[in-house]
Amino acid sequence: MTDLELVRDLSEEQLLARFVPLLPTAASTIVGPGDDAAVVSAPDGRFVVSTDVLVEDRHFIRAWSTGYDVGWRAAMQNLADCAAMGSRATSLVVSLVIPGDLEVSWVTDLARGLADACGAHGAAVVGGDLSGGQMIVVAVTVHGDLAGRPPVLRSGAQPGDTVALAGVLGRSAAGLALLGAAVADPDPTLVAAFLRPDPPLEAGVRAGVAGASAMLDISDGLLRDAGRIARASGVTIDLLDPADSVPGDLAALSEAAGRLGIDPLTWVLTGGEDHGMLATFPAGVELPAGFRVIGSVRELGASSTARVTVAGAEPPVTGPGWDHFAG
Amino acid sequence: MTDLELVRDLSEEQLLARFVPLLPTAASTIVGPGDDAAVVSAPDGRFVVSTDVLVEDRHFIRAWSTGYDVGWRAAMQNLADCAAMGSRATSLVVSLVIPGDLEVSWVTDLARGLADACGAHGAAVVGGDLSGGQMIVVAVTVHGDLAGRPPVLRSGAQPGDTVALAGVLGRSAAGLALLGAAVADPDPTLVAAFLRPDPPLEAGVRAGVAGASAMLDISDGLLRDAGRIARASGVTIDLLDPADSVPGDLAALSEAAGRLGIDPLTWVLTGGEDHGMLATFPAGVELPAGFRVIGSVRELGASSTARVTVAGAEPPVTGPGWDHFAG
């Protein structure tokens, strides 16, 4: 048995000396890590900001996710929020809570995961905070640049708009289900979709440039997140039959669904955390690369209740709706 | 016994519906909470950003700190980082991890503490994230505006500069020690200094306007934080004898120090978390309101090692140096 180096074997300063050099840098950083605060360029006089937290035993378990996976996912779910406003990420700050008995290599792997997720998109980690604690918590805040464009909100969808999607549906949920069922040889594409989601961030920026009327990233499932646009905009969102609009997503899930005895439509309509970009575009706008039509925006129906339909009818499945506290 | 309403009795949406309306707002917010991200004004084309985390049983315990106290302190330690760059805070985002058996009133009290700490300084809470978890974690990211000025870094102190302080020394440490010793009728001023520090944020902004050459907020004790400026700037920082420079701080601690058998000088020189502004000013600059002279910047000595002296000699006490992981 090798001697594992643990977090409690190092001083905070020593740990930071290992961690900080691994973090990604970017030209938008005016003052980077090491002072009381960082300073970041915001060329158009505004910045986009969002924060998301990952908690051990709630969002991940160490048996399935490496430090690299957790760093990647923590960055990516934040980068997706930035992209869903139509902005390009410039910078992140990371608050990290770690137990003393965690391996140091887990922490440096986390930095590498952060770096690889951010680096491809030109975003830097410009600051952070480190604390001990009983469980791992990774709280990331991301900042984005809109390059002079208006932000794409959830509230701008209009009747007659096209509903379009960039990215995949249901794969992260399927990967999680495969890990949970401990099946032999789970589909590695699906498991990776859960552990290291890779949403089409540039498509979000392109949607902003093209003039998307509303957008969000799908973190809680297509039905639930489409419902958020519907409510914020005061419209009905009618999705096409997924068998017609997203046959590839259904096909990608079919083997795993068969093994677990699950209807793949459930994953496609209610599976979260793929972080695809769900957007609406005014009629006549050419869809940016990466987007495909999956529905249309309609007036509120007779009930005047914002809702989501599938092929004009009640959705064929309903999701549990993720809730962090429900008993 | 009354029926306490617990976090797990509410859905996430219900909890947010109680929490979000309590948060402070500000004119700098272009898009506030409720979308994938917020949008904040950054009029000079840059923003200052810092993040700090508070962890239950590490930075606070529920027996001593109310939700209000924790919200106040989480905001204030971040606001102090912003001020220590010479910037004025515009906006915060908050990631909150809470156990299901926490009282809902604790969470709404936290929002009120955040609001009261921010509100007086014109900063808004523009977004956040909420998750369950075994222990409470409050991760705050703050953003500040420099109004066109250069940021005040730790690295700009020059031999001949004046070392000055705005704010108090040692009171938070004394308050913590009184709580830890469970003494009867502890000095309420000292206890409040620990539970709800109230650093002179505007003095930080004034220091930036006046042309401070270096600055930080004292989070780990005067000696340790002065050492950070010394190292970053490559200088010696020579502090005056505290009996001459900060007699009021020593006097404010004397009763508590007597009760606990501690030299008040230890708290003054090594007590952290008062978040006073420690700054250096070029000779001839008139000190901004709130600052008093506590030392001077000198060339590196013969050893060429950046260090802190007191009245030209080794400091009379040394602190333990806070470390989150040391066994």
UniProtKB/TrEMBL annotation, chains A, B:
Its EC number is 2.7.4.16. Keywords: ATP-binding, Kinase, Magnesium, Metal-binding, Nucleotide-binding, Thiamine biosynthesis, Transferase. It catalyses: thiamine phosphate + ATP = thiamine diphosphate + ADP. Mg(2+) 1 binds at residues 51-52, 129. ATP binds at residues 128-129, 154, 219. Reaction mechanism of ThiL seems to utilize a direct, inline transfer of the gamma-phosphate of ATP to TMP rather than a phosphorylated enzyme intermediate. This is Thiamine-monophosphate kinase. It comes from Sanguibacter gelidistatuariae. The lineage of its organism: Bacteria, Bacillati, Actinomycetota, Actinomycetes, Micrococcales.
